[in-house]
Structure formats: C-alpha cells, structure tokens
Amino acid sequence: FISIGFEESSWADLYDVEVALVEGERNEANEPQERPFLSVTSNGSPVEIIDLQPNATYRFWVRGHSKNAAMESYGWGRLSDPVLCRTTAPNPDSPHSLKRHGSLQSGSMGLAWSPPKAARTEYNFIVEYHWRGDAGRVSRLTVGNVTHATITGLQSGTTYRVRVGLEGADMMWSDEVPFSTGRKNVNYLEVYRISERGGLLPDFLENHDSADAKGEVMFLSSCTCEDCDCSRFFNMTISPFTRYCVEVLDVSIPNTNTTNGSSAFSDYLGCENQGNDTSPACGCDLWFDRVLAHQPPHVLDSFCPPNSSHTSPHQARDCFCDPDSLRISNAFTGMMPVPLPNAAPIAKGTSPEYSPGHYPYSTPFSYWFHHPSEGFCGHRRQNNGDAKIFGKGCSWRRFPSSYIVYWPELVQNGWDETSPAKGLFMPDDQVERNAKVFEATMAAKVQRCCGC
Q: Residue 380 gets which letter from DSSP?
C-alpha cells in the first residue's frame, strides 16, 4: 500500500484521491495517457491506498469538496498537481499478494495469497491478525502447506489488519492489509453511475440514482437511438463509469409500489439536478422510468394520470406520489426492478402497440436505486470505519474506494456499438451481451468484494 499525505484546506469537508497506474510514456502534448482507475474518499490526510500492484508506478491527484462553494463540478475543486510513487517489489522469500477470498461474511473472512518466489515444496504458513484499533492483541492461525485460509470467530462490522508469515528461523511476512467483516442488519450494494454532464471524474451518490451492473447497461441502452436527448446529461465516450460500494440499513417497508413486492427498499425516486448541479433533488418516480420498469397501465394511470397539456399519450406525464411514500423514500434507499424486454420504445412513443403489463415479474433483469441525501450517514471513514454506526435518521453510507472503467475499455473487451435504426432501441440480446462485457470489464478492476 501507499500512504498519501496532503495539506488540508479550510473550505473542504471531504477529499478524493484519484489513482492511476502509469503504464506508458507521455503523448505528444506531454500529457499522461493514463486515467484514474480508483478514487478514494477521505475526511482528511493521510489516505491509505491499498490493493496496489507490487513493483508498479502510480500517479496520484487530490481534490477537495465543499458543499458551500460553487465549484467546477458538484462542489469539487480542481485537481492538485500529480505525484508519482512506486510500490516495492515483493520479497522473494516472503508470501505476497494477500487478498480476500470468497464472499463477505459477518463473523469470518476467507483469505488467499501467493507463496514465496523461492522454489520450495513444503511451507508452513501462519496467518496473523488483530483488530485495527488494538494492535497489542494479536491472534495467530497456523494453516500449514496451503495458500488459503478462513479465519472464524471474528466480530461483525470490524476491520482487522492481516498478514501472512512463513515459519522458519527468520519469520518472513507479507505486507499487512486491512480487511473488514460484514455488519449484521445491513445490506451491501454494488451500484454504478456514469458521471453526468461530461464529467471526467466520479461525481457522487447523494440524491442521485444508480443501478446494478446490468441496470447501468439497461439505462445506457434506453439512450441508444438517433433522436435520444441523453447527450445533455452524459457523454459515454469520455465520462467514467464508477462502481460504488454502499452499506444500507436492513429495513422492512410495507406497501411499496415500485419495488415489485420487496420490503427491503423504499419506493424509487427520480433524482435530477433541477438546474442546481451541487444540490440535485429527488421526486416522484418519473413516467418514463415507470414504463421502463414495465409498470402496468392501471398503475401508470393511477400515479401519472393523462394530462391534456401533453400532445401525445406517449409523452412524459406529470407523476404524483403519496406524501407518506415520499417521506419514507427521502429517508431510505429506494429500488425499482427494470426487466427485459426494453420498454423504451413505448416510452418514446415509437412502439405504441407494445404494452407493458408483466408486473409483478419473477426474474427482473436489473435494478435501479436512488440514494436520498436526508438518509446519508456520511462516507465510511477510512481511519474510523468501525466506530461510526447508523444513527438516528441515517440509513446508508458509502465505502471510501470506488473503481472506474472507461468507454474504450468496454469497446476493447467486446461492447457491441451497433446503433439501432432511427426510432428503435438497442435489441434485448445486444443489451444482454453488453451487460456481460460491462461486468467482466469492471470485475478486472475491482480488487475486493463490496464491504471487504
């Protein structure tokens, strides 16, 4: 890992450290060709950047955020000048590349590592771990001649520092790496966003909508047509696609309308900037989004009644939600399943013969989420991740590390760029193929499971 320190600013309440792997020479304009693949949010300096490759060079930038200042993008200031740092090569006599193995658990964690480069047939590995806030109490687990292990009997929602040693006359240890156990009574979501308005860096989640991996592709597919106006919101070819890890309080919300019967989320809200980039607002689920979710006509007419001011029944309608539902949705994360087939044609008025009505459905293709700022707990602090627990009026928070991919990577990995004919939208089989490309491309960047 590398620890990045910087001078804090009096106007900033939050910082992002952007991380790029230096892989080649500079271009003709003497600009670095690499772009950040990782963004780490912190409340101050220093910031520990983990899960880096050994013997590799990285470029780092820092930017500050202020909710009280109108800056370049959503309250973020300019990037600092970059600094270059290089990780060390692993000791050939030590275990290395310690990673989490398996899924997130509340009382245990699976680990895997690489053996020393020095050729031997027999090893006796020892796993050493301690609670992050109590380095004086160290536990050891002897695992023998294997390169994986599971530690049990751990506290839930706790960060441990772990290293692997090779038993011998001189104990040879891997680097110490922080890992966390899952917290009870919470759900962990991997959600994705493309930065809006041509942003070149990740924006944020508060009062914004997101989706799971397939849902992000589904969202993009609804904009692949000649007469779509999505370009005023984002630019696929330059803006980053960001994966966030979100911790959501486990709740039970009855009588929801958009969740397909799930009580774990509130009704989904459409969040837009409403002309204010630094403070978007969330309102009742939009008619266009409800159509994409295949809500049946009687539901659409109930919440979004036809309006004589609209010239076509296929134009967007004004939607209204129950005040109690809106109050709950502004406090808790909302969800809406979005299935195939793609219902964008009827939403745009190009395919009136197709009518949604498969609602409720048993196997949704994807999910969209909204993240209300009123329920935001703040970012899970890197230096105090175990102490900050959900408080009154607080229902979700985001982990510090966010992973980033870009359009050229998707195309290189097989994204089908075929443009539909005018008046048509991306076919469902193309959506499914591109979803697999998106998931595989992002999986190659992400170094640990959500919550780990």
A: P
